[in-house]
TrEMBL record:
Top-rank taxon, per record: Bacteria
Domain DUF1989: 17-185
InterPro entries per record: DUF1989, UAAP2
NCBIfam families the record matches: urea_degr_1
Protein name per Swiss-Prot or TrEMBL: DUF1989 domain-containing protein
Length: 215
């Protein structure tokens, strides 16, 4: 569902450019709104959410899908934790839908899906592992890496119930906005994938903007 935002970029309290293959890991406070902006189009932003006050509580694909009755995420979707609590709500979306089944690329999956010589290519799980290692203040480790949301990524479900990775449906300037219902750690890997068409074989930067509730 396409819903545009009334928020203006110049009123954001924080703006960060995340290069392809890099990560973003910061706290978004309850009531704040965070926007993931696809700057050049067809990029994929592999994203994890955690309760900033207790990172043991984190985004649950199972609970989110069950409660909304839809495997795709879009405006109006409530992002639920593994404890059934509402973490965020998607309040604006100009892309239309986002994947929560396809998972994140890893060196191991690059090998299985593509070829042995793809194993050493950079992957989203590597970005997350680097993020938790470089941000010890959150007290997290590789054990906290779990199932993610792929914002902007196009992973259609086949009639047989399988998943396919297709050319993205996003475009330059498309965005998704979420309002935090609790203090959340937002951990994004801006996908560097070169082996499937999720980002048109051309990884590009994204921008992350944050607004206070008063905005």
């Amino acid at each position: 569902m396409i819903v545009e935002s009334a928020l203006q970029a110049e009123s954001a309290v924080r703006r960060d450019i995340v290069p392809a293959g890099d990560y973003y890991m910061k706290v978004v406070k309850k009531g704040q709104t965070v926007r993931l902006l696809d700057l050049e189009g067809n990029q994929a932003a592999d994203t994890l959410f955690y309760n900033a006050n207790d990172p043991v509580e984190r985004y649950s694909a199972i609970d989110t899908i069950r409660e909304q009755g839809n495997v795709y995420l879009t405006a109006g979707t409530k992002i639920l934790s593994d404890q059934g609590n509402e973490m965020l709500e998607i309040v604006a979306d100009t892309c239309g839908r986002h994947d929560t089944l396809g998972g994140a690329c890893a060196t191991e999956s690059n090998t299985v899906r593509y070829a042995l010589d793809k194993k050493c290519m950079h992957a989203c799980r590597d970005s997350w592992l680097l993020a938790v290692t470089e941000n010890e203040k959150f007290g997290m480790s590789k054990r906290d890496i779990t199932h993610n949301i792929n914002f902007f990524m196009n992973v259609p479900i086949t009639q047989e119930g399988g998943l396919t990775f297709e050319d993205g449906i996003s475009g330059s300037g498309k965005y998704v906005e979420l309002t935090a219902k609790m203090d959340v750690i937002v951990l994004v890997s801006n996908c560097p994938q070169l082996n499937n068409p999720c980002n048109a074989y051309n990884p590009t930067p994204i921008e992350v903007l944050v607004w206070d509730a008063a905005a």
